[in-house]
Design goal:
heterodimer; A: 314 residues; alpha/beta; Rossmann fold; Alpha-Beta Plaits; 4-stranded antiparallel beta sheet; 14 strands; 29% strand; elongated; B: 434 residues; mainly alpha; 5% strand
Chain lengths: 314, 434
């Protein structure tokens, strides 16, 4: 088991009616690393995770989790797996301790081993003092921590976290990101899905970018940034019709791509210091004022823009 | 084991919900309690209290052939020289004192005007030739009955008493005529003895006129005291109501608890359960088990509570066990069955408001119609079109101490319903999550 990949995904396909949610996805996650699936809403991340959790049966392809096939050995997959779903999946009318005890039983824990593990997890998620309060009395962040705690009870080798920071306050978000790193340090493999580029950038050893059900790029942060060719992204807000000026900017030497979304124009350039005066000059000739400028060094968002022509928005 | 863990978790959740607890136990007991206190007042008196009917009598009977009745045979024990006197004496007897209040007036007009002026409710006018007509073989003895047309119950009771009396007198007349036809002329003097003998029998049969006319007490066997008799009356009303409530709400509980499958799907805990190393069969078995256990606890608690609170006798242990099993299995499987057709819990409103209420009411027709034999028979047949009807039938059979084989047949019918519901429900849920 030492040399097998934690997760090996081999040509997964899944359709819902006429909608192809996942189209031939392949990737591999090494043991003990944090692997992020990055993509906008509707990219196919949750469908991929659902297939890897044996919740959905793939139309085509297979995947192995710690050597167990999701097609032929789902029980084996589930026994090495902890899943933190995107939505809270807890019994709110039970206490945190009752929730953890119940889920522990579902993972096959019993007796003193269960009790010990519940106490340990309560300690890890920082809720030991309030363990006997019903979950519906907790704040959103506390619920999220219990939601994660459930997946840790049986000390899984692989843990899936499906957008665990959606809709929570910055402090709870920080706690969760820290706990993901802590899990990695304990030797767990984490498959993390997010549409927050910063999270993927901060946490991941490897990142796979998904869009429209397809994996469009995969690698380390450095490898992915190289794909953009070390280009810098300049985001500009304009006061006037952007169509004409965008056409003018595309003709400037050193500009590789110009796109617009929600009133924000993004320009990919090789050297922002050299190009920026030309952008202002072209805008002035067309009597368009630039009201804000944001220069971004190469990152995953720039890569997404480079690959899809669209910005990766929240 | 995991199935039991799931079931116990659901049981804990169900009984933590104040709404569910009130619905499962509070409402059936409360409704029955209301009936208990409502009927308890009537039952504790042992009888319905009716106001006395005010009767005015104008006895104008002048008598006829020599006629005397042994005072021993007349309630009140007074001597009667005429047939009119006989009627007056009977109506003034102590036995009638609880029912009627008699006033005597000298003439018919005064009697009628007394009713017209609403001083009395009924006027009885005995004509002057009443005894004569009675004695005549071809005669027609008629009493005038004059009543306040706005009243019903009092005059009806009075009319009934008089009809009984007149029927008796007609019998005497026939007996005398037959005797005179058959006897020799030398035996004509024995006519009086024939009349005496007939009156002795017929009047003694009428000693408890009030009781015969107004017996509203529950059937009882053997010698029982007043308190027990009162309790029997109450239980004959309260027992079926409590049973009906129990069945009605057991079906609600079965359906509501089975809905937790859909609720867990919406709360995302069911998909999460499917990510654990627990098979789908075990998960669904646990969910189904929780439905049976919740309904089981409800039925047990209601049976015991009703027994102690309202002193309801559900029947012998075996009958109660069979009948309870029928209710639990049919209510639970019905819940699983109907929920398997729902897409989400939002559709549950239609289910509770429509399907459960309508089928529950149909099932309880027999209880609503129990005071009308024809309606009860028809209701019994109609109620068997729904599973609640079979559950209620088993319950009534146990309460009425019917033979165990009869209860067993009803329970088997309930189990047959349950088996069909369960099979369809399980098949649909399995299909949904595969």
């Amino acid at each position: 088991m030492i040399n097998v990949p934690a997760i090996a995904v081999l040509g997964l396909h899944k359709s819902f009616g006429g909608n192809q949610a996942v189209q031939g996805v392949n990737f591999e996650v090494k043991q003990g690393e944090i692997f992020s699936l990055l993509g906008p809403n509707g990219a196919g991340k949750t469908t991929t995770i659902s297939m890897l959790s044996c919740l959905l049966r793939p139309d085509e392809g297979d995947a192995h989790v710690m050597g167990h096939s999701i097609r032929s050995d789902p029980t084996g997959v589930k026994s090495v797996l902890g899943v933190v779903p995107q939505d809270l999946a807890l019994y709110e009318d039970l206490t945190a301790r009752e929730n953890l005890s119940f889920w522990g039983k579902m993972y096959g824990l019993r007796g003193s081993k269960l009790k010990l593990r519940v106490d340990e997890v309560l300690e890890v998620i920082g809720l030991r003092d309030r363990a006997n309060e019903r979950v519906n009395k907790y704040s959103g962040g506390m619920k999220r921590r219990v939601n994660i705690g459930v997946a840790l009870l049986h000390k899984p080798k692989v843990i899936y976290m499906d957008e665990p920071t959606v809709g929570i306050d910055p402090q709870s978000r920080r706690n969760i990101l820290d706990s993901v790193v802590a899990l990695k340090n304990e030797g767990m493999t984490v498959l993390y899905t997010t549409h927050y580029m910063e999270e993927a950038q901060e946490l991941s050893d490897h990142v796979a970018i998904m869009d429209h059900g397809k994996l469009i790029a995969c690698g380390t942060h450095e490898e992915l940034v190289k794909l953009v060719g070390q280009q810098t992204r300049i985001d500009l807000t304009l006061n006037g019709d952007s169509e004409n000026v965008m056409g003018a900017w595309k003709n400037i030497d050193g500009v590789s791509r110009v796109s617009s979304e929600d009133g924000l124009v993004s320009v990919l350039v090789k050297d922002s210091n050299q190009i920026l005066p030309h952008l202002f000059e072209a805008a002035a000739q067309l009597s368009i004022r630039i009201t804000s400028v944001d220069i971004r060094e190469p990152n995953l968002e720039a890569l997404f823009l480079h690959l899809t022509g669209r910005a990766l928005r929240d | 084991m995991k199935a039991f863990d799931i079931a116990f978790k659901d049981l804990t959740r169900s009984f933590r919900s104040a709404f569910a607890v009130v619905f499962m136990f509070g409402v059936p007991l409360l409704v029955t309690g209301m009936f208990y206190f409502m009927f308890g007042n009537i039952a504790s008196n042992g009888e319905f209290t009716l106001p006395k009917t005010k009767v005015v009598i104008a006895n104008l009977d002048e008598g006829g052939p020599k006629f005397q009745v042994n005072p021993k045979n007349i309630p009140g024990g007074k001597k009667a020289d005429t047939m009119g006197d006989l009627i007056v004496n009977i109506l003034q007897s102590e036995d009638m004192a609880d029912l009627i209040e008699v006033t005597l007036v000298p003439d018919a007009e005064t009697a009628r005007s007394s009713v017209d002026n609403q001083i009395n409710q009924v006027a009885i006018i005995i004509p002057s030739d009443f005894s004569h007509q009675f004695a005549d073989v071809d005669g027609k003895a008629v009493i005038e009955f004059y009543q306040d047309p706005t009243l019903t119950l009092g005059p009806a009771i009075m009319r009934s008493i008089l009809n009984r009396f007149m029927d008796g007198m007609a019998g005497v007349k026939i007996a005398v005529n037959v005797f005179l036809d058959e006897a020799d002329s030398s035996e004509a003097m024995l006519t009086g003895q024939v009349v005496q003998q007939y009156l002795k029998v017929s009047l003694s049969e009428n000693e408890n006129v009030e009781e015969e006319l107004l017996d509203v007490r529950a059937p009882s066997s053997g010698e029982i005291d007043k308190e027990t008799e009162t309790q029997n009356l109450l239980l004959n009303i309260i027992g079926p109501i409590m049973g009906g409530m129990m069945v009605f709400y057991a079906y609600f509980t079965g359906t509501s608890t089975a809905q937790s499958i859909l609720r867990e799907e919406e709360e995302r805990t069911l998909p999460r359960l499917f990510t654990t190393p627990t098979s789908q069969t075990t998960i669904l078995a646990g969910k189904f088990l929780s439905v049976f256990m919740t309904v089981g606890v409800q039925v047990f608690v209601l049976l015991v509570s009703a027994h102690f609170l309202f002193k309801i006798q559900w029947g012998d242990y075996l009958s109660v066990i069979l009948m309870s099993a029928g209710i639990i299995f049919s209510a639970s499987s019905f819940g699983i069955f109907v929920n398997s057709f729902l897409k989400n819990t939002k559709q549950g409103g239609v289910l509770f408001g429509g399907v459960l209420t309508v089928t529950g009411m149909i099932g309880m027709i027999k209880i609503f119609a129990m005071n009308s034999p024809i309606a009860a028979k028809m209701g019994d047949t109609i109620s068997l079109l729904v599973p609640q009807g079979w559950a209620i039938r088993g319950l009534m059979q146990a309460m009425n101490s019917e033979p165990i084989n009869e209860i067993l047949i009803t329970m088997l019918a309930s189990l047959l319903w349950s088996a069909v519901f369960f099979a369809v429900g399980v098949w649909r849920f399995n299909k949904r999550y595969t």
